[in-house]
Design a protein that fits this description.
With about 140 residues, the protein is α+β, with helices and mostly antiparallel strands. About 25% of the residues lie in helices and about 35% in strands. Strands 2-3-4-1-5-8-7-6 form an eight-stranded mixed beta sheet. Strand 7 and strand 8 form a beta hairpin. The longest helix is centred in the first third of the chain and has 12 residues. The radius of gyration is 15 Å and the shape is globular.
């Protein structure tokens, strides 16, 4: 693993949360994006080398909608940037970890992402993230 890529925070009201985090960080988000396949709208704040991703559901029954209904707002996941997502998945499976399906998908920023099953990581959702290489 290279580094922490971002920390994802589930929020109920993205507009309200953008205002809160703008005040907290002293600057606006640098991008907002809809990830249609996940039923989520995201908002990103850059703080030094770290990124905070706010996630709000824009579709009933989406993973974030289910999360918010079950656990409410708060830290949703920690994302780690990896050199080679396929090799990292293979290494972690060899170590006994399992993954949320589908194993690899396209996430925000058009990155390849994969999520370890939180039941094996102390109930912390861990995301692996790799920038797509240009073909």
């Amino acid at each position: 693993m290279k580094k922490i890529d971002h920390i994802g925070i589930a929020v109920k009201d993205l507009k309200k949360s953008n205002t809160i985090f703008k005040k907290l960080f002293g600057k606006s988000n640098y991008k907002q994006e809809i990830v249609k396949k996940e039923g989520v709208v995201t908002s990103f704040f850059q703080i030094g080398d770290a990124t905070i991703e706010l996630l709000a559901s824009n579709e009933k029954g989406s993973p974030i909608d289910k999360y918010l209904n079950k656990k409410s707002e708060g830290i949703h996941h920690i994302s780690f940037e990896v050199f080679d997502i396929h090799a990292e998945i293979e290494r972690l499976e060899h170590e006994g970890f399992s993954f949320v399906e589908p194993k690899i998908r396209i996430g925000a920023g058009n990155k390849l992402v994969s999520f370890l099953h939180p039941k094996e990581t102390n109930d912390v959702l861990i995301e692996l993230s790799q920038k797509k290489t240009k073909n």
